[in-house]
Amino acid sequence: MSEPTTTPPALGNEAEGAPSTLLDESPMRQSASKRFFSSAAGRSIGLIIALILLVIVGAVTAGDNFMNVNNLLVILRFASVIGVVSIGMTFVITGGGIDLSVGSVLGLASVVASLGAIQTAASGFWPLMVFVAIAVGVIAGLVNGLIIAYGKVVAFMATLAMLVAARGAAELISQRQTQVVNNNGFLDFFRGDLLGISWVVWIFAIVAVLGWLLLNRTTFGRRTVAIGGNATAARLAGVNVRRHTVYLYMLAGAASGIAATMLLSRTTAGTSTHGQLYELDAIAAVVVGGTLLIGGRGTIGGTVLGVLLFAVLTNVFTQNNLTTSVQLVAKGVIIVVAVLLQQRFANRETSSSA
Amino acid sequence: MSLLEVTGLTKSFGSARALKGVDFDVRAGEVHCVLGQNGAGKSTLIKTLAGAHQPDSGEIRWNGEVVTLADPVAAIELGIATMYQELDVVDGLTIAENIFLGHEKARAGFVSRRDTSRATRELMARLGHSQLSPAREVGTLSAANKQIVAMARALSHDIKLMIMDEPSAVLDSEEVNNLFRVVAELKSQGIAIVYISHRLEEIQRIGDRISVIKDGASTASGLPVEGTSTKKLISLMTGTDIDHVFPPAAPLPDDAGVVLEVKDLAFPGKFSDVSFSLRAGEVIGIAGLVGSGRSEILETIYGERKSSAGSVTLNGKVLKPGSIGDAVGADMGLSPEERKSQGLMLEEPIYRNATLSTFTRFAKGPMLDEHAERVATKEQMTALELRPAEPNRITRTLSGGNQQKIMLARWLIHGTKVLLLDEPTRGVDVGARMEIYGLIRKLASEGTAIVVVSSEIEEVLGLSDRVLVVADGRVLAEKKATEIDEHGVLDLVMKGSAA
Predict the structure, then answer these.
(1) Dihedral of alpha carbons B75, B80, B84, B88, sign
(2) Of the candidates A9, A219, A230, which has its C-beta nearest B360's C-beta?
(3) Residue B218 sits in which domain range?
(4) How far is CA B210 from the centre of its chain?
(5) B281 close to B252: Cβ distance less than 8 angstroms
(6) Cα angle for residues A59, A62, A65 (degrees, 5° grid)
(7) Does residue B146 share a domain with residue B174?
């Protein structure tokens, strides 16, 4: 009895008349194209094609105004702040959570880091401002994480509370005043470039590469995927799910802190209104990129592409003197189309195996 | 004369033949159990009797007359109500609104609350649940009470036969007892029950007669519960003589040391005073009915639940209560009851499931070594005869038996000294089931200490060296597996529960 006996396919609640496949279906029987499009690379191909099409549209409609190196660098600089936030968001969503507070925390971090006292203290050592911004983000994330993991509050509500509270705290601290950044070391660094590319863009690139390594090559990333894929299984296998959940929100907070310094340098001011609605842009970029909103599968490359897609879209619309209202409608359409495609592939995958 | 008589029922879906000839009859006022393994065709049979599927051939007779159940409404009008596992109650409505959904009690076009409420109270009283107020929102009820509401809805039509599809699957012990009381109540009111289950223990408690289907065909019809042995039922369900299913236990070496010591362990409301010790290479089984506390004991030993008293000592180390990390660190492993929802990441490759508790060990610092993980996984897959040995395959595509082997592989890679197995063969085919039994005994012969919990008492007895018989959260007896049979266990349980 070494070979399993053949039993009829289970006909439980499956769709009537659907031919049941054998449980141990050979992967060879999946068509090559289907396998390709359900792989990470395959999903990204769709985004790359969309991006190329958008660039062509930009080149045709706006001509040289769009297709010149300066404009492309502008797009990248524009994408960098939300990009860093989105990398942090990718981890939280992959881990089965959500962080609605990233924008508010960014605002709070920008206000604290640009306080007169902090800037004075940082006069000799400008990176202090960066450390302060990151610390604010990490602390906010710690609070989020503790409430979610140990208080067992759903992530949506816990971070919604932080969204409101952090914005309020930023207003209290800044007294709703714009705080001008006058630390020259800080401004000079961020205005500088390397190989003609702004440091802001380099920071996004570095964060993305580190994020990719962290998610795909480290035990931290494996835990993240495991918790998002099946938190109970991870817990019963001995993974400390609660502690890791806290780390994930701290990571998202740190990303908001980094993004705050980038925005501080671009606007040369800290204000409590920085980062408004960034949470929605970040979630949109992450999900359009191919990370599953229910967790368990995340892609940093997809997130980067998602961020770039929206950045190019905005730029093309601006170049063509279209209003932001039109942009918003187009964004909405893209989000829906991307999620529809994602579900289509996800359904195909399950129907081919279950 | 029989109330319902089914003869030669067949049904195909495309090329798959779900029913290949089912015969059975139900008498008024009896509890008729229909047994079958997963995939035997139970669900198709229910849907056919409920009017949701049309049979390809065969006859359904109701009070002696051939009937056609064109749709679910026709079945209900005839007097056949069906309670599916997924209860179709509306959470946002009250109990009364749910019961009379679609056939509201109305006067001159207006829903009469008073009439509805009175009728609901009467129905709840019939089911012995007068404490549930008609105005209560269904969403606030437990799964068990939702079931009562679903039953009340069936009774609000004039029904003669109620089909219940694995109703105990979502209930805990108290609730199961309660369900059985309700079933007895309905029976005394002359309503026939068709009770679908694969839990043999339940059938012995409430069934009058049993029919068995295997691979879509009847293998037995209308056997009396009294005098039909579990062994016979299993062989009817599986087509295998179970005497040969369980591999013989190798004698325990005299020098095998105690690895696990459980002392006076308790969890409030579930069990108390559980003590036993386990030697290397020994298999101990926990036998008891649904809700006896058998799974909770396992979960508490593992630290998934935090014990309120007592201690668990593994290789001389006292484990911190409520700490899974501590248990795993001390080389204990659990294969949970619900493999898919509690054990595996179904969308991930096999190797990531196999190394879920060891990936940090393969890692070089924080960096994963996936190659080493794949190699170790492949090695275990070969050892466990999990074919094809492709560590990169997505876990969802595997059969139940192979998924169970991945759970074993996880703990083998870990080097577990004490393995806790909760329902190790749930949802596993017969053939693979015997392979799993063989593997469990093999692991034991290699020195792993194993605790087995299963709803199938025969399985517990067949696999174990020693058995703890539990009921109502207490250990009633500790016996050598060779000194007790299933009847002995049930006798103990019945006496223990009564005491």
Answers:
(1) positive
(2) A219
(3) 4-242
(4) 18
(5) yes
(6) 95
(7) yes
Using omega within 30 degrees of 0 as the cis cutoff, is the peptide bond preceding B268 cis? no
Task: Pick A23's closest partner by Cβ from B336, B353, B399.
Answer: B399
Please, is B315 exposed, middle or buried when counting C-beta atoms within 10 Å of its C-beta (0-12, 13-18, 19+)? middle
Burial of B68 (0-12, 13-18, 19+ CB in 10 A): exposed
Count of Cβ atoms closer than 10 Å to residue B373 Cβ: 23
Q: Position of tokens 């080389």? A: B331
- Examine residue A59 and state whether it is found in any structural domain, yes or no: no
Helix, strand, coil % over all residues of chain A, rounded to 5: 70, 5, 25
DSSP class of residue B160?
S
Exposure of A270 in the CB half-sphere (CA atoms within 13 A): 33
- Nearest CA to B308 out of B273, B264, B267, B272 is that of B267
Residues of A with Cβ-Cβ distance to B396 under 8 angstroms? 350, 353-354
- Domain at A280, CATH number: 1.10.3470
Yes or no, beta carbons of A8 and B215 under 8 Å apart = yes
- The span from the CA of A148 to the CA of A155, in Å, is 6
Tell me if A8 and B390 make a contact (CB, 8 A cut-off): no
Number of helices followed by number of strands (H, E) in chain B: 17, 22
CB of B213 closer than 8 Å to CB of B40: yes
Nearest-Cα residue of chain B relative to residue A15: B13
Tally of structural domains, chain B: 2
Give the whole-angstrom CA distance, residue B469 versus residue B416: 25
Task: Give the three-state DSSP class for B279.
Answer: strand
Structure tokens at A149: 């993991």
CB within 8 A of B21, min separation 6: which ones? B8, B9, B10, B58, B216, B217, B218
Instruction: Tell me the one-letter amino acid at B394.
Output: I
Q: Residue B192 forms beta bridges with which residues?
A: B161
Structure-block tokens of residue A248:
């994930």
Q: CB B356 to CB A23 under 8 A?
A: no
B399 touches chain A (CB under 8 A): yes
Check whether residue B412 and residue B494 sit in a common domain. Answer: yes
User: Is the predicted pLDDT of residue A157 greater than 70, yes or no?
Assistant: yes
Chain B closest-CA separation from residue A10 CA (Å) = 4
To the nearest whole Å, the CA of A261 is away from the closest chain B CA by 28
The answer to whether residue A62 sits within a structural domain is no
Enter the tokens of residue A76: 């990248």
Residue that finishes a domain, picked among B242, B263, B282: B242
**Contact between residue B443 and residue B419 where contact means Cβ atoms under 8 Å apart:** yes
Q: Judge whether A44 lies within some domain.
A: no
* Sequence-ordered list of residues with C-beta below 8 angstroms from that of B399, at least 6 positions apart, any chain: A4, A23, A24, B428, B429, B432
- Measure the CA–CA gap between B448 and B450, rounded to whole angstroms: 6
Q: Output the tens digit of pLDDT for each of chain B's 499 residues.
A: 788 999 898 988 877 788 888 998 999 889 999 988 766 788 888 889 888 888 898 889 998 888 888 888 888 888 898 888 777 788 888 898 888 887 777 667 777 778 888 888 888 888 888 888 888 888 888 878 888 888 888 888 888 999 988 887 767 666 778 888 888 888 888 899 999 876 677 787 888 999 988 888 888 888 888 888 777 877 787 776 655 567 777 777 777 789 999 999 999 988 989 999 999 999 999 988 777 888 899 999 999 999 999 999 998 899 999 899 999 999 999 999 888 889 999 889 999 999 999 999 998 989 999 999 999 999 888 888 887 888 988 888 887 888 889 999 999 999 899 999 998 888 776 667 788 888 898 889 888 999 999 887 888 888 899 999 988 888 888 888 888 887 788 878 777 655 4
Query: Cβ(B307)–Cβ(B266) under 8 Å?
Result: yes
pLDDT digits (tens, 9 = 90+) for A272-319: 889 888 999 999 999 988 888 888 889 999 999 999 999 998 888 888
- How far A236 CA sits from the closest chain B CA (Å)? 7
